[in-house]
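Supplementary Methods. Inverse-folding protocol.

Structures were first reduced to a discrete structure-token string of length 388. This string, shown here, constituted the complete conditioning input.
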């Protein structure tokens, strides 16, 4: 096994420390905080060992803290408001988010509300932007999926309107990516989060905002996912494989920070807002199993740079789109992903109805505008018909 280096990455003002035992590199930051709130879910922060290591640093430094352990998958506008109220009632002086994308996004959102006041919906819909001056946020990432520790976006669900979307809540100040903390990630979540990262680089590199920089880091991230996810499926305690999946996820976060996502994420947000039991990464895997062909047909060169890792005989031409789709679906099967939307109770009619909402919801417009092809009812029906 090659040496797993610990190093720093800077994006949008974040100081991100990557590698084994990287938390110690931010000891000075934790030691200077004043009564932070530690935001976690009910289990993963403890099981990974991250909560214990953060608490030890704080306690040894004489820093008091409180724990908010009510974070859930697919956080809602109301839950972000609840965390903001908790923060203010407890007289806290900063956030430490220990978890995956849902936990980090919840903390980002509540911090924006604490800093700028008003309503969470103001930020959710872009009526108001968070101020530059915000409480310190340290993100201790536990999954190799969302890249939320490396970008400025948060994703919330507004249940009253059955709407889920990403919005610019603000960058963390400091982030920790330690692959040791991902060793306890359940196998299904390991697959879901890795495919989430893969979908980030597929969409960012083919977005209308893409660039040579985004295309380069996207190709690198995809190559790592294709090489190392099968190893984690075979041996979930493979630290080297977890390291490179985490690295790929971090690159994916940087990629979407620069070029955003497009149709795949828009469609998935419609599905999991309607049915929160659908894991984000699972929804993306299912959607991209068909959507990847449309992306390849519209952006063959950029897509070829990613998918030729799976089938070296592919050529960067629209005519190879169906073969590219076969290669992608073959990879999903190889890592054990065989789910359909029907497994989550969706009917074809529901999927078609939900997908068409992207054409009428103004808040979802950017997902269409950034797609590299025309999005209409015919295309949406074509995709929906193969997913249930």
């Amino acid at each position: 096994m090659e040496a797993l280096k610990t190093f720093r990455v800077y994006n949008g003002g974040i100081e991100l420390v990557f590698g084994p035992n990287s938390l110690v590199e931010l000891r000075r930051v934790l030691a200077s905080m004043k009564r932070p709130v530690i935001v976690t879910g009910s289990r993963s922060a403890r099981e990974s060992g991250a909560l214990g290591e953060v608490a030890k640093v704080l306690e040894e430094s004489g820093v008091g803290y409180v724990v908010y352990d009510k974070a859930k998958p697919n956080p809602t506008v109301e839950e972000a408001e609840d965390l903001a109220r908790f923060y203010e009632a407890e007289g806290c002086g900063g956030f430490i988010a220990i978890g995956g994308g849902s936990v980090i996004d919840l903390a980002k959102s509540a911090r924006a509300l604490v800093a700028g006041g008003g309503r969470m919906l103001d930020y959710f819909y872009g009526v108001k932007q968070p101020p530059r001056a915000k409480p310190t946020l340290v993100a201790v990432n536990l999954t190799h999926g969302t890249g939320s520790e490396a970008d400025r976006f948060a994703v919330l669900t507004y249940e009253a309107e059955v709407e889920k979307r990403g919005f610019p809540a603000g960058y963390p100040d400091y982030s920790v990516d330690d692959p040791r903390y991902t060793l306890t990630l359940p196998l299904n979540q390991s697959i879901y989060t890795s495919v989430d990262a893969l979908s980030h680089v597929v969409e960012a590199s083919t977005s209308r905002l893409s660039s040579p920089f985004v295309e380069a880091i996207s190709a690198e991230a995809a190559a790592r996912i294709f090489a190392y996810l099968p190893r984690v499926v075979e041996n979930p305690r493979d630290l080297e494989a977890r390291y490179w999946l985490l690295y790929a996820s971090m690159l994916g976060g940087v990629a979407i920070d620069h070029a955003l996502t497009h149709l795949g994420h828009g469609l998935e947000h419609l599905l999991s807002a309607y049915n929160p039991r659908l894991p984000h990464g699972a929804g993306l895997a299912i959607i991209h199993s068909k959507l990847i062909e449309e992306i390849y047909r519209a952006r063959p060169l950029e897509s070829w740079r990613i998918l030729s890792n799976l089938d070296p005989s592919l050529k960067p031409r629209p005519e190879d789109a169906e073969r590219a789709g076969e290669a992608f679906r073959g990879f999903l099967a190889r890592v054990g992903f065989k789910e359909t939307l029907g497994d989550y109770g969706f009917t074809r009619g529901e999927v078609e109805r939900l997908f068409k909402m992207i054409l009428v919801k103004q808040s979802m417009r950017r997902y269409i505008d950034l797609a590299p092809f025309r999005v209409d009812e015919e295309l949406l029906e074509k995709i929906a018909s193969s997913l249930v």
